[in-house]
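User: Here's a structure from my thesis project, written as structure tokens. My advisor, Dr. K., wants to see whether a designed sequence matches the one we expressed. Can you design one independently, without my sequence as a hint?
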């Protein structure tokens, strides 16, 4: 049977996951409040300190690249004041100047810590499951060589990011990949302390 404290922790972490909506709404202070000050993030177009990610997101918002996220319910594993959360998400992207968009399905893979009685994200990574282009008015010709530089699971997202001025600089975890396995093994070791 779950205790009241355990249920409160689950709800607090679920709220952290759905709080990603603050990014879509350009509510930067609320977004920052979801993460510990020393938090890091690893995404297709950004790797580094979360505070720097927020600054980069502000710049991205001024570009033709627009995104919206649909966040599912997290699966959470606890060990004392540490937790791992895996959350389905959908990234909906549009670049009106290119007349091109995409939808990518990913999973946020988060290491979460409770410090001073408050749960916040310590490290966010992403695992990409699948993705595809959307064409806003007419079919566009895609540079196949550019598209094929990336794993199929996030090739459409990476292509659109790069064409929008936000290059993807390395390989990222995809469903069932060795990178996903290693990410999860490392997180389990971290959670055990």
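Assistant: Designed independently from the structure alone:
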């Amino acid at each position: 049977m779950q205790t009241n404290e355990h249920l409160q922790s689950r709800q607090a972490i679920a709220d952290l996951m759905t709080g990603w909506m603050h990014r879509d709404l350009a509510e930067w202070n609320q977004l920052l409040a979801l993460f510990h000050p020393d938090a890091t993030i690893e995404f297709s177009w950004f790797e580094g300190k979360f505070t720097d990610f927020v600054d980069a997101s502000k710049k991205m918002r001024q570009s033709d690249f627009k995104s919206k996220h649909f966040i599912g319910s997290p699966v959470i594993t606890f060990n004392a004041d540490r937790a791992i959360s895996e959350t389905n998400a959908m990234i909906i992207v549009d670049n009106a100047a290119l007349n091109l968009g995409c939808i990518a399905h990913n999973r946020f893979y988060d290491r979460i810590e409770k410090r001073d009685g408050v749960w916040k994200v310590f490290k966010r990574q992403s695992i990409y499951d699948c993705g595809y282009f959307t064409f806003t008015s007419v079919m566009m010709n895609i540079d196949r060589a550019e598209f094929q530089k990336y794993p199929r699971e996030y090739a459409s997202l990476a292509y659109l990011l790069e064409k929008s001025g936000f290059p993807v600089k390395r390989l990222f975890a995809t469903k069932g990949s060795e990178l996903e396995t290693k990410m999860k093994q490392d997180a389990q070791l971290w959670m055990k302390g």
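When you compare it with your expressed construct, this may help: The chain has a mean pLDDT of 95.
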